[in-house]
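Quick entry between incubations.
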Amino acid sequence: EIVMTQSPATLSVSPGERATLSCRASQNVKSNIAWYQHKPGQAPRLLIFGAYLRATGVPARFSGSGSGTEFTLTISSLQSEDFAVYYCQQHNNWPLTFGGGTKVEIK
Amino acid sequence: EVHLLESGGDLVQVGGSLRLSCAASGFSFSTYEMIWVRQAPGKGLEWVSYISSSGSSSGSTTYYADSVSGRFTISRDNAKNSLFLQMNSLRVEDTALYYCVRDGRAGVAGTVRRFDYWGQGTLVTVSS
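Done. Structure below.
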């Protein structure tokens, strides 16, 4: 099983600032990862797939990068609605596996 | 508009069974691969099971997480646009919100998977 490790566990950011979230895979997953935003009481929302492709309707301030084992989600200028938990997920191998999540909170 | 609506979650005793359903609408259900994902209280997301799209004459391909293999069975009824998860021998650690999720690549092998639509979830509580 591929282990996905996200860091940091919590990120304190002021509105308007840049947020950089990291995800590391225990094995090469090529570009087969996705990022999700999850808010309490809501379904997770797909942000990025294929490591850097933005899902439909996702604002351009969200961007993904990386390949192999190291990946990054960047939020260029945090808006109030961006405070949430973010998960990475690999879909290169079964079982699909998620990272433990990064909580982005207001500083 | 794509819509996924889960149902069937309930409070059940250890060792009991439940059958979750997911009603799909707004897209050609038979064309899409589907998965179940769960979230235990206070925990992260965990993939549970996968089923291929309409499949060949030999049936659908299915995969399971080790934690549920042998106890859970995923199935689909394309005529009724529905996805199911039969859950047997339930354990306390199966307590979670269960989500039905679509793989938006429309079953096209070689294209990038994209788990683009999620239902709101159905809550399963297993009590000892």
